[in-house]
Amino acid sequence: MVRQSTGLVFVLPALIVLAMLIAYPLAYTGLLSVSDQQGNFVGARNFATVLAARATPQAFWNTVYFVGASIVFQVILGTAGAILLNQNFTGRAIVRSITIIPWVVPGIVAATTWAWMFHTEFGIINYMMTAPGLIEAPIGWLTNRDTVMPVLIAINVWKMFPFVTVMVLAGLQSIPNDLYEAARIDGANFWEEVWHIMLPQVRSVITAVTLLLVIWGLNSITIIYAITRGGPANRTLITPIQIFRLAFDAVQFNQAAALSVLFFAVAIVIVFFYVRLVQSPSGGAR
Amino acid sequence: MGSVSIRNVHKSYGALPILHGVSVDIADGEFVILVGPSGCGKSTLLRMLAGLEAITGGEVLIDGQVVNTKPPKERDIAMVFQSYALYPHMTVEANMGFSLKLSRAPKAEIKSRVAVAAKSLGLEPYLQRYPKHLSGGQRQRVAMGRAIVRDPAVFLFDEPLSNLDAKLRVQMRSEIKQNHQRLRTTTVYVTHDQIEAMTMADRIVVMNAGRIEQIGTPLELYDRPANMFVAGFIGSPAMNFLAGNLQQSEFSASDGSKIALPDVGNINVDKITLGVRPEHFRIDLKGLPAEVITIEPTGAETQVMMRFCGHDVVGVFRERIDVAAGQTIRVSLDREKLHLFDTKTGKRIGG
After folding, report:
1. Closest partner residue to A186 among B51, B102, B130, by Cβ?
2. DSSP letter at B238?
3. Contact state of A181 with B71 under an 8 Å Cβ cutoff
4. Which residues of B touch A183 (CB under 8 A)?
5. Are residues A181 and B81, on separate chains, in Cβ contact within 8 Å?
6. Which has the minimum average pLDDT: A266-270, B40-44, B301-305?
7. Stretch B64-87: mean pLDDT
8. What is the CATH number of the domain that holds A216?
9. Mean pLDDT of the A152-175 span
């Protein structure tokens, strides 16, 4: 019995820190979500209010669009980059280093830089496209309701795909050389090696990375908030930004808390199903 | 079916030469083993045959065609790796059928050819398993099955048994040999284990430091090694070497003992080395004295490490000898079975 209490003493500091950093905010958010601004219990009223708001379903679908499209391109581009950087070519070390830059650059710096590059009048992108006549008139990338979301997704993909590349590259480098040689003897060309050897061998890495990207995607605020703040006309309003604006622009902490709780629940469900899918029995041996 | 010709093949990594001109002709259906110590270039040579390693100079012909620049898949070869290199994410069946799948063979044909190979290797119960669920010997069989399914012109084996325990190694040795006797496919097999080479090969190529020391059948190499390297490498326990001089057609060991030599004609060097296989010592009351250092009875025979003519030598006797360390026994040598080498060049003297 003495041993047990000794063990408890050792984990206690970590438990206290965790409780203060995670459990307390979580519980406090839950408390806020069922209170009014004076702290009186109001039941589900805050939930009803946020669910009735016109922006809520729009933000939800924007989030799905933003996160889904980002992940698809991040994983494809990141994996392709990893396969490319796993080949032997001169200057590979330099290219590998350069590739990581977008991921290393602070999000706010990247967002501000891209916002200027996409600027309708002064942006280099419009300049480069109008000068050789690719487009006739400058495009309002960040103000046009049809282009703004794809542009933000592109920036987000640019920001995060190096992370996928680094992780998948590490996975590729752990594949024994014998397997490639065996495949070459068996008659595989490069694309068959990619399909039959590389991708199956890094499947678990891609799975884990995708899960991380989902979680980070659902929590991403920096890029969108720094560039459009959710506009124009809520076209790029995703739920985390809606929560942020509700709390700090509209000062409706209780409604923001209610929306947070709902969002938390949805995120938990998504992650739960994803983990179940990944750990399904058929995935065991592959 | 195919013959293999290796003609004056060189290999360098940058400025570092690995193979200094190697030539071997391998007939269709032959089982040839490349053997030598680590770093002698035997695996490099095999990988050059496979097309996994570029050829710096010389020619490699498979079935009469120069394949120097052909990729592995155009060489009609199959290879078994030391690590087996099974695809971990594929079942045994998929592993074995992978090359046929890549060559776009019909599914039914793949299935039937895999089934035939699996049957001959006793792998039928394991076809749906993954490599990680198999034992070392089973994985080895799958690797062989993957090669057999393709029905190639040449099988290449790169130390396929070194990851197995001793008992399994003996068993797989016999299985590989049986498969070769059944399929009659030209086989090039690399090993550092001279016992594997002796027991399995039709012909052995002994390599050392990027050169071929000798090519011959196992017993040729054993009975008539071309030089001291081959003499010392082939055979276990290894041949004993006694350094000495030639004096009036007698061998005079460094401690002055005299040993009568077989008739090998004129010898025109002074310093010679006498090679004696451990089993060519005889207990003989009229023989030379030998002080016993250690004695190792194995049941079937007795190995005696002894001090003889100023050298530590190993003798193997069929009979059981009742002596203790420190005692002196008298032994003679089987005169007709002695080997003579030029001490300076290491080359064999006489026929």
Report:
1. B102
2. P
3. no
4. 87, 98
5. yes
6. A266-270
7. 92
8. 1.10.3720.10
9. 92
- At residue B198, φ and ψ (nearest 5 deg) are -65, -40
Contact B149, B113 (CB under 8 A): yes
SS3 readout for A47-116: HHHHHHCCHHHHHHHHHHHHHHHHHHHHHHHHHHHHHHHCCCCCCHHHHHHHHHHHHHCCHHHHHHHHHH
The confidence band for B291, taking pLDDT boundaries of 50, 70 and 90, is very high
ipTM for the assembly: 0.83
Q: Do B88 and A192 touch (CB under 8 A)?
A: no
**Nearest-angstrom CA–CA distance, B93 and B111:** 8
Task: List chain B domain ranges.
Answer: 4-232, 240-342
Measured distance CA(B133)–CA(B123) in Å, rounded: 13
Q: Does A192 touch chain B (CB under 8 A)?
A: yes
Half-sphere exposure at residue B196, Cβ-oriented, CA atoms within 13 angstroms: 31
pLDDT at B351: 65
Name the fold adopted by B240-342.
Answer: OB fold (Dihydrolipoamide Acetyltransferase, E2P) (2.40.50)
Number of domains in chain A: 1
> Strands (DSSP E) along chain B, which ranges?
4-13, 16-26, 31-35, 57-62, 65-66, 77-80, 154-158, 186-191, 203-208, 211-216, 240-247, 250-253, 258-260, 271-276, 281-297, 302-308, 311-317, 328-333, 339-342
Considering the domain B4-232, what is its CATH architecture?
Answer: 3-Layer(aba) Sandwich (3.40)
Task: Supply A202's token pair.
Answer: 């890094």
State the amino acid at position A203 in one-letter form: R
Q: Residue A206 in contact with residue A166, Cβ under 8 Å? A: no
- Burial of A279 from C-beta contacts in 10 A (0-12 / 13-18 / 19+): exposed
A66-90 confidence digits (pLDDT tens):
999 999 999 999 999 999 999 888 8
Residue ranges making up the domain that contains A166:
55-283
Helix A148-173 vs helix A199-218: crossing angle, to nearest 10: 140
CB B261 within 8 A of CB B272: no
User: Rounded CA gap, A81 and A169, in Å?
Assistant: 8
A4 belongs to a structural domain? no
Q: Report the mean per-residue pLDDT for chain B.
A: 91
Retrieve residue B335's tokens. Answer: 């005169």
Measure in Å the smallest separation between the Cα of A173 and chain B Cα atoms. Answer: 16
Angstrom distance (rounded) from CA B10 to CA B341: 29
* pLDDT tens for each residue of B156-212: 999 999 888 888 889 889 989 999 999 999 999 999 999 999 999 999 999 999 999
pLDDT (average), residues B323-351: 88
CB contact A36 to B (< 8 Å) = no
* Confidence bin at B10 (pLDDT 50/70/90): very high
Q: What residues of B are in the A interface, CB distance below 8 Å?
A: 50-52, 71-73, 77-79, 81, 83, 85-90, 98-99, 102-103, 130, 132, 146, 150
- Cβ distance B89 to A178 less than 8 Å, yes or no, reads no
Residue A168: HSE in the Cβ half-sphere, 13 Å Cα cutoff: 30
